From TrEMBL:
Superkingdom per UniProt: Bacteria
Segments passing through the bilayer: none
Name of the protein in its database record: Arylsulfatase
Pfam families: Sulfatase
Coiled-coil portions: none
Protein source organism: Sphingomonas sanguinis
Key words, A-Z: Calcium, Hydrolase, Metal-binding
InterPro entries: Alkaline_phosphatase_core_sf, Sulfatase, Sulfatase_CS, Sulfatase_N
Classification via PANTHER family: ARYLSULFATASE, ARYLSULFATASE FAMILY MEMBER
Residue span, Sulfatase N-terminal domain: 16-433
Organismal lineage: Bacteria, Pseudomonadati, Pseudomonadota, Alphaproteobacteria, Sphingomonadales
One GO molecular-function entry: metal ion binding
PROSITE patterns in the record: SULFATASE_2
Protein family membership: Belongs to the sulfatase family.
Length: 455
């Protein structure tokens, strides 16, 4: 089937809309619907109206997962054998390690757009930095995208010092250079932009179904959130990560998410909470308070998007899929890493103070802080699985996921089947009434490896 033939495939008039939401480094137990204590009423309501997947698997890191989501094939086939930031001399530029979504695949956005869908995106891309690899060149009609894998959530890394260090983020607005407006919070602004696209489409009378992609950068480090949201969690985590892990596991058992005899694995890579000095506990508890606020704020913005769809009268025709890109981040992070530089990753970075970074207790969570929450909290958040992001254990690759909306008969049902992020692209095409072509843009493309999840 040629691109022309693929373009001739048109989704039927009653084809569903799609809203795909991706959380960044979210823990399996963070959402209330998966045993968490963080306030996530909007995501919980969706999950409990649909079907929760307890066996949904991804890659252990970010861009490999996103490449499989977009392509429906293994991340090596799609060009992201590992994250571009981790490529070494032996792999850089080799087939399967191009470091971007390659031309052996057609993205799900390209295929849906060819089939008559409006394709909209706001959030993190992480699949290529050059114009021919950006969202605008890979099928998205409208997009506001962060090209790299992380950025300051308040836009405080866009000044001269961060640019000189090679650490400033690259944003694109429909393919044109852009910035995250100063003072805006990432999750708020991404939701603003997606709602704007949806509102403009509704006002114009555009009758095409839409594929809306909302890949948040929350709750990825650096841990930062609005002060009023952080304040909600003051003191909540003073008992420590072992206590939180036990609390969440008990709740998971009550929800039927895990077996009644499930036990947590031993704590790895982290000191027992009881061995920490009081000042260390205060810092660690503050980190988790900020992390919880990030998840909370993401949920608030999901609620805003859902409210917009309902106001437009398009919610009832929308299939919603939510999942995390990998397990929670367990590294100790206190400053930017050279591997995320644009340019030579071997060049030394300026000291954190020269970048305006202040990781003092009272500043953690503010725009000028730069921390992760470390292995203790990460293992609490990955319970009941073993280890965290970066590992090919369940803690790194099994993520919270659910489907809801049009035609999803769930009512809160829990599905334990072994699923894979490669299943997403063929599932969307199946619901859209489209077939994957053998060729696209004048050349052969790889067939989907995933399977449709449509009953």
């Amino acid at each position: 089937v040629t691109q022309a033939a693929a373009t001739q495939q048109q989704a039927p008039k009653d084809a569903p809309n799609f809203l795909v939401i991706v959380a960044d480094d979210l823990g399996w137990s963070d959402l209330g619907a998966f045993g968490g204590e963080i306030a996530t009423p909007n995501l919980d309501a969706l999950a409990l109206s649909g079907v929760r997947f307890t066996g949904f698997h991804t890659a252990p890191t970010c861009s490999p997962t996103r490449s499989m989501l977009m392509s429906g094939v293994d991340n090596h086939e799609a060009g992201l054998g590992t994250m571009a930031e981790l490529l070494g001399p032996a792999t850089r530029g080799q087939p399967g390690y191009e470091g971007y979504l390659n031309d052996r695949v057609a993205s799900i956005a390209e295929l849906l757009r060819a089939g008559g869908y409006a394709t909209l995106m706001a959030g993190k891309w992480h699949l290529g930095l050059t114009p021919e690899r950006e969202p605008a060149a890979r099928g998205f009609e409208h997009s506001f995208a962060l090209l790299q894998g992380l950025s300051n959530h308040f836009g405080a890394d866009q000044d001269a010092a961060w640019s000189k260090a090679g650490l400033a983020p690259s944003y694109r607005d429909d393919g044109k250079p852009a910035v995250l407006p100063s003072g805006h919070y990432s999750a708020d602004y991404f939701a603003d932009r997606l709602i704007g696209y949806l509102d403009a489409s509704a006002r114009s009378g555009d009758r095409r179904p839409f594929f809306a992609y909302l890949p948040f950068t929350t709750p990825h480090w650096p841990l930062q959130a609005p002060a009023e949201t952080i304040a909600k969690y003051k003191g909540r985590y003073d008992a420590g990560y072992e206590a939180l892990r036990a609390e969440r596991l008990a709740r998971q058992k009550a929800l039927g998410l895990v077996s009644a005899d499930a036990v947590p694995h031993r704590l790895e890579l982290a000191r027992p909470w009881s061995s920490l000095a009081p000042e260390e506990r205060a810092i660690e508890a503050r980190k988790m308070e900020v992390y919880a606020a990030m998840v909370d704020r993401m949920d608030q913005n999901v609620g805003r998007v859902i409210a917009a769809l309902k106001a437009q009268g398009r919610y009832d025709n929308t299939i919603i899929l939510f999942f995390a890109d990998n397990g929670p981040e367990g590294n100790v992070i206190e400053a930017p890493s050279p591997r995320f530089k644009v340019g030579s990753p071997d060049a030394a970075l300026p000291p954190a103070q020269a970048l305006g970074i202040d990781n003092s207790l009272d500043n953690i969570g503010k725009p000028t802080s730069y921390v992760g929450y470390g292995p203790g909290w990460a293992q609490a958040n990955s319970v009941p699985s073993w280890l965290v992001k970066g590992y090919t254990t369940e803690g790194g690759i099994r993520v919270s996921a659910f489907a809801a909306g049009r035609g999803v008969a769930g009512g809160g049902r829990i599905a334990n089947a072994n699923l894979d992020v490669r299943d997403v692209a063929p599932t969307l095409l199946d619901y859209a009434g489209l077939r994957q072509p053998g060729e696209f843009a004048g050349h052969a493309i790889l067939p989907h490896e995933g399977k449709s999840l449509r009953p």
